[in-house]
UniProtKB/TrEMBL annotation:
SUPFAM superfamilies: ARM repeat. GO terms for biological process: establishment of mitotic spindle localization; mitotic spindle assembly. InterPro entries: ARM-like (IPR011989), ARM-type_fold (IPR016024). This is CLIP-associating protein 1-B-like isoform X2. GO terms for molecular function: microtubule binding. Residues 105-132 are annotated as: Disordered. GO terms for cellular component: basal cortex; cytoplasmic microtubule; kinetochore; microtubule organizing center; mitotic spindle; spindle microtubule.
């Protein structure tokens, strides 16, 4: 994530798309435990959220949305806590994106009227290649009605809004060492970042 948050880097639109596609592919190789709610990750996710509103490129917007959904599916509880530590403007846009994706997923699943697949937030699954489909709502033997699933969605929104905010200083707090469990996001993105920057020139 270090390349994304590096203030000295000013990636152009082509590089942004390349970075986002790399993060998407990387998330498909990770275990849920590899995604941590660190200050550096929060700052990187904040940057990705801003890219979902990139006015000059629909490709950047779509790629950023796919990455957010992939990270949500990778580790839903951790991503939800991370989102809760961000400013409300970031929360609102991302929550709306995820809710729209969940609703689209329910429609595309072909569920009978009044019936839905299991709650999507209890068993996160890795995002599949191709982005927004197949949905994160895998069909299962358990059937819930529409009222239950939207109650669950409302619960997520409330949890995000009620989660205590981290201080703004913590968002920009540098990592004190290069150690840490799980996937080394920084090393992978720094290596990729150099190649992506060359691509954009």
């Amino acid at each position: 994530m270090r390349f994304i948050v590096d203030q000295t880097q000013t990636p152009n639109l082509k590089v942004k798309v390349a970075i986002l596609r790399y993060v998407q592919a990387l998330s498909q190789l990770m275990d849920p435990a590899d995604f941590s709610n660190s200050s550096e990750t929060r700052l990187a996710v904040s940057r990705i959220i801003t890219w979902t509103t990139e006015p000059k490129s629909s490709d950047v917007r779509k790629a950023a949305q796919v990455v957010l959904i992939c990270l949500f599916e990778l580790n839903t509880p951790e991503f939800t806590m991370l989102l809760g530590a961000l400013p409300k403007t970031f929360q609102d846009g991302t929550t709306r994106l995820l809710h729209n994706h969940l609703r689209s997923s329910m429609v595309s699943s072909g569920s009978p009227a009044g019936r839905t697949p299991p709650r999507p937030l209890t068993s996160p699954t890795n995002c599949s290649p191709g982005g927004l489909s197949p949905s994160l709502l895998d069909l299962d033997s358990e059937i819930l009605n529409a009222e239950e699933i939207f109650s669950s969605l409302r619960g997520v929104t409330e949890a995000i809004q009620n989660f205590s905010f981290r201080s703004q200083e913590e968002l920009t707090e540098p990592r004190r060492d290069g150690k840490g469990g799980g996937w080394d996001w920084s090393q992978n993105l720094m290596v990729f970042g150099g190649a992506a920057q060359t691509l954009g020139q």
